[in-house]
User: Fold Aromatic-L-amino-acid decarboxylase from Rippkaea orientalis.
Amino acid sequence: MGEKRDYHMSPEEFRHWGYQTIDWLVDYRQKVEEFPVLSQVEPGDIRAKLPSNAPQQGESFAEILADIDRIIMPGITHWQSPNFFGFFPAGASAPSILGELMSSGLGVLGFLWATSPACTELETHVLDWLIDMLGLPDHFKSSTGGGGVLQDTACSAAIVSVIAAREQKKADINRLVAYTSTEAHSSLEKAVRISGLRPENLRLIDIDHHYAMSPDRLEQAIKADLQAGLIPCYLAGTVGTTSSNAIDPLTRLGAIAQKYDLWFHVDGAMSGTAALCPELRWIHQGVELADSYCFNPHKWMMTNFDCNCFYVRDRLKLTNALSIMPEYLKNEATDSGKVIDYRDWQLPLSRRFKSLKLWFVIRHYGIEGLQHYVRKHVALAKEFAQWVKLDPAFKLVVNPPLNLVCFRHQGGDLINQEILNRINESGTMYLTSTKLDQKLTLRMAIGQAETERENVKLAWKLIRSVAEKIINDNDFTCQISTEKAA
Ligand SMILES: *Cc1c(COP(=O)(O)O)cnc(C)c1O
Assistant:
C-alpha cells in the first residue's frame, strides 16, 4: 500500500545487460558462418513459438536474451555472412553498430536545429565530407545553395525528388510526365504514384544492349509527350541498376534534361560508394548535371541500415516543396535564417541522430580503409566473372563494371531456377536472381564486409557442382522435357 514501485532497469542492470548484449553480438558475428545463410523456417514457425498475449508482469532480461537464441535466430537470414551474395551487400560494421547505439542512447530527435544542434551540424558536415570523398560536384555542398541530408532509403530520396520537381513546375499535375528506364528501380514507380502524378504518365524508356537507358529513345518520348500537350517534368538516371549494374549515360541524359527543363535525379544507391576510389569515378561522369543525387552507405559503405545520402543542387527547391511552419515549431534560430532545419528536407517531422554512425565509420576506416574494401570486392567480382567465362556450361551476361556478376547456366530457365533453389536450400550460401533479356539470370553481389577470396571460390565451386548434379539427374531432366512439351 502506497509502496513506491519502479519498473525501470537500474543503471547497474543496464550496464550488465549492455555488456552481455555486446558480447552476444560479437560471438554471433564470429560464428555467423555456422548458420544456414538463408533461414530455413516455414511461414508461421516463428509466431508459433511466441506467447499469444503480452506479459502482464515484466520479465527478466536474461529470459529475453535467451529467447533471441531460441525463437529469433532460426528465423534469421544472415545478411552479415561472408557467404551472403544475394540482392546487395548490407554492411553493418562494428563502428556503425556502435554509432547506432550511441544515437539511440542519446535519444534525441533532430527535426529542428534547436532540438539538438549537434544532430544537424554533424550531419551537414559529414555529408559535405562525402562530397569530397566521392568527388561529387561542389554545388551539392551546404556552403553553396545546395546541400545534403540523410534520408532513410533511396526510395525516400526518389519520393522527395519527384515532389520537388512537381512543385518547381507549378503546372497541372495531371499533365506532368516522368521518365526513367525499364531497368530503373521500382522505387521510381512508387515515387511517381505517391507524389500524385498519374501512374500512366511514367515513361519507362528502352535500354541499349548494355541495359543502360537510351538517350535517343528518351528524347523521342519527350517530343511525343510535348506534342500530345503533356508537360515533361522529371528524369531519373541510375548509376548501377539493380538487375545488371548498368550505368546510364548521365552526360547525355543531363543534356536532354536541361534542354527540356526536367528535374534530373541520379540514383546511385548501391554503386555510388565505388566513387570513393578515384579510378572508379567514371561511373559518375555527368552527375554535375543532376538536380539531385543519392547513394546508400547502408549498402556497400560499411554502415548499417538505414542510411541514404541525398544531395540537391538548389536546397530552396526542396524546402519550398516540403516546408510547413506550424505555430508550435516556431523558434528564434529558425527565424534567424542561420540554421538548417532538416524536417523541411524529408517526409516525416522527427528524425534520428543518424550521422553519428556515418561519422564513426568514416573516422574508424578512414578513406583508405573504405577504398580498400571497394577495390577488394571489385577485384573479386572480376575474378569470378573470369571463371564463369572460362566454363562453357555458363554464360557471363554482362562484364561486371563493379561488384555484381550476372551470369546463367546455358541450359535454360528451369535449370537456373533449380540451381538457385538447391544452393539456397543447402544453406551454404545465398544467391538471388533477376531477368535479363527475358531469361532467368543469377546475380552474385560481392560486397559483404567479411567476404574473402576463399568464400567466392567456394561459391563458384558449389554452383558448378550443383549444376552438374542437376544435369546428371535423370528425374529432373525428364521433368524439364515434359514441361517443355506441355
Ligand atoms: C537498392 C536500390 C534501391 C532501393 O534502395 P532503398 O534504400 O532500399 O530504398 C534503389 N535503387 C537502386 C539502384 C538500388 O540498388
Summary: Residues 355-390 form the longest helix (36 residues). The radius of gyration is 25 Å. Residues 88, 153-155, 185, 187, 238, 240-242, 267, 269-270, 296, 308 surround pyridoxal-5'-phosphate (CB under 6 Å). The chain has three domains: 11-34+39-76, 108-351, 362-485.
